[in-house]
Amino acid sequence: MSDAATPSVPSDFIRDIVAQDVAAGKYSTIVTRFPPEPNGYLHLGHARAICLNFGIAVENRGRCNLRFDDTNPAKEDAHYVEAITRDIRWLISGWAEAQLTFKPKGAAPAEQSVNGRPDRLMVPRPADAADAEPYAASDYFDVLYDYAVELIKRGKAYVCDLSPEETEQYRGTPTTVGRDSPWRSRSVEENLDLFTRMRAGEFADGTRSLRAKIDMTSPNIWLRDPLLYRIRHIAHHHTGGKWCIYPLYDYAHCLSDYLEGVTHSFCSLEFVVHRPLYDWVLTSLDLPRPRPHQYEFAKLIPTYTIMSKRNLLRLVQEKVVSGWDDPRMPTLAGLRRRGITAAALRRFVIGTGITTHDAGITDIAVFEHVVRDELNQAAPRRLGVLHPLKLVLTNLAPGEVIACEAVNNPQSEAPTTRTVNLTREVYIEQDDFAEVPPPKFHRLKPGGEVRLKYACIIALDEIVKDASGQITELRCTAQLDTRAGEPNSGKKVKGTIHWVSAAEAIEAEVRLYDRLFTVPEPGAEDDFLKVINPDSLTVVSAKLEPALATAKPGECFQFERMGYFTPDAGDSQPGMPVFNRTITLRDTWAK
RNA sequence: UGCCUGGUGGUGUAAUGGCAGCACAGGCGACUUUGACUCGCCUAGUCAUGGUUCGAAUCCAUGCCGGGCAGCCA
Predict the structure, then answer these.
(1) Facing residues of A322 across strands?
(2) For the whole model, what pTM was predicted?
(3) Considering the domain boundaries, does residue A527 fall inside one?
(4) CATH code for position A567
(5) Is the CB of A230 under 7 A from strand B?
(6) A282 with A320, same domain?
(7) Strand B positions with any atom < 7 Å from protein CB?
(8) Are residues A66 and A206 in the same domain?
(9) How many folded domains does chain A comprise?
(10) Pair A37, A69: CB distance under 8 Å
(11) Does residue A373 lie in a domain region?
(12) Is the shortest CB-to-strand distance from A575 to strand B under 7 Å?
């Protein structure tokens, strides 16, 4: 089993870059960061970024900061901060907890001196410290403001009075150059005055902005005097009503990286065109410490899912799913509730590699294979009948109990066993009987024999039907001498099926999940809601062996021949457990 | 008809001038008290053309195809 603790160390262009920097002695400690915006839940796509950033930190004995990129209060919420923090802790548990780095509660960048020059730096704090909390870009608003003032003083930023619409017109298009704003050449004094008054709340939203003075004719649109600050008279989940101007991503992100001492800043390919701006801000300020560098890699897009937060939010809002943590969602919370292990998730995202070629789509079968492989190693086996059909062993007396030894996990090095009791009445799977069997049907059929797993071979004698022709029970003879240890135990039959004692079985609600979408690329449809799989959730009333009565959320079991199942953390009740099917077993016969 | 970026089996990747390898998917078979797992075998690839070189997936040129960029989102 690939254990958990250490996924095998991959090799890719990013690790090559870091290795070169380490070899060159460029940094004393490698510092990465994972910077989610708290406007939704983390999903499979984020998992790759998390594993990259924490992986680099683990491999280089460095650290990885969790920083909330919370510069747009209109979309963000503290609820997401908590959910994201929880999901990250879960995903890295048993692997990179030691690298997860927070800051002291309430801390802002501390003043320091580097080679006689003033500087600011965040103090790191291990995430498990009592007074630690995640980093947040909003903790840097004061410092970011000071840097903006510095940019103005250097003649590299100006207050612009163009409206959003005018700004767009002046910007030009990818194929035509932009025009200078009429406010571009204001004096430093005027800019300083106006920026101060922007902060003081004198101006309405959208009436003015702070812009970088770069080049309106640049072929790179992001260098055409991009906005640094916008006016937004709205409260922020972390800073409350303190601010009415908020910095934009391109300005805040690079400086946040710098303030935290980040050495390598990884983001997705769409930011390649922003990199010159990332570098421009940092070099324009003439900062005393070595600056961070941005590197880009391709996003992970699996088949049969959608990955954008906006679209996932729509599934939640339109109640296609029960919430962000619905087990059909590709969110970390949903995957966890479904029973996917963190180790499986890590193996999958690390296994798909880090590259610079995009537009690729990863077959979800790769994910399913990893999940099955992890669970096959780890999950104890249990007997559970999803669609019960009563079967009476007529040669057993009512009340008679035959103890059978069942292996808990044949994959473990020293397998343990438990006892399952065979009684006169048992349940078997409806699919394991066919009155008119298809070709190569190895299960129970008229005149046929089959083995009850861990027990004995049975022979079908009689099919009992009700007035409407529905099969109500099967009457069979148990060949008790075919049990393990008995003289006829070596007798071979084609099929072995699972079963539970009717007298001892517990009742449970079992939720059978399938893919949420019917097509491999739902995101490519004009409306992904039109390709929702109507059978993505089927709820059944199942009969389970009594050992499952004490199952706890977080535990995973293989119901033999049926798949992997885990108790639902939210909906299980004492006496009425709810199980979620994580994934079916591979089934080469059904195909 | 701008700038940036990229093309390796069906899919995701490795090979950094020297035997095109791995995984998934698919097919066949063995084993099996899970039609699971495991094991064995098979199928299938360097976008095209030219150039440099003893030797090119890799370097160069051209072409073709794809992705990204015109939020006061991140």
Answers:
(1) none
(2) 0.95
(3) yes
(4) 2.40.240.10
(5) yes
(6) no
(7) 1-8, 10-16, 23-27, 33-38, 66-74
(8) yes
(9) 3
(10) yes
(11) yes
(12) no
CB of A352 within 7 Å of some strand B atom = yes
B69 C1': nearest CA residue:
A273
Tell me the residue range of the domain where A22 lies.
Answer: 13-297
A469 and A369 assigned to the same domain: no
Does this complex have an ipTM over 0.90? yes
Domain boundary among A457, A477, A504: A504
Q: At what angle do helices A249-259 and A275-284 cross, to 10 degrees?
A: 60
Regarding whether A556 and A423 lie in a shared domain, the answer is no
Give the tokens for residue A453.
């797993």
CB A477, CB A493: distance < 8 Å: no
A429 C-beta less than 7 Å away from strand B = no
Per-residue pLDDT in tens (0 to 9) along chain A, 591 residues: 333 333 467 889 999 999 999 999 999 999 999 999 999 999 999 999 999 999 999 999 999 999 999 999 999 999 999 999 999 999 999 999 999 999 999 999 999 999 999 999 999 999 999 999 999 999 999 999 999 999 999 999 999 999 999 999 999 999 999 999 999 999 999 999 999 999 999 999 999 999 999 999 999 999 999 999 999 999 999 999 999 999 999 999 999 999 999 999 999 999 999 999 999 999 999 999 999 999 999 999 999 999 999 999 999 999 999 999 999 999 999 999 999 999 999 999 999 999 999 878 999 999 999 999 999 999 999 999 999 999 999 999 999 999 999 999 999 999 999 999 999 999 999 999 999 999 999 999 999 999 999 999 999 999 999 999 999 999 999 999 999 999 999 999 999 999 999 999 999 999 999 999 999 999 988 899 999 999 999 999 999 999 999 999 999 999 999 999 999 999 998 889 999 999 999 999 875
Query: Which residues are CB-contacts of A69 (< 8 A; sequence separation ≥ 6)?
Result: A35, A36, A37, A137, A249, A252, A253, A256
Q: Among A446, A473, A504, identify where a domain stops.
A: A504
A315 inside domain: yes
Identify whether residues A489 and A547 lie together within a single domain.
no
A293 and A367: one domain?
no
A210 Cβ contact partners less than 8 Å away, ≥ 6 residues apart:
A148, A152, A157, A158, A159, A160, A195, A198, A227, A228, A229, A245
**Lookup: tokens for A428:** 């078997």
From the alpha carbon of A590, which nucleotide's C1' atom is closest?
A: B35
- Alpha-carbon distance of A590 to A442, in angstroms, equals 12
A127 and A231 in a single domain? The answer is yes
Statement to judge: residues A42 and A150 lie in one domain: yes
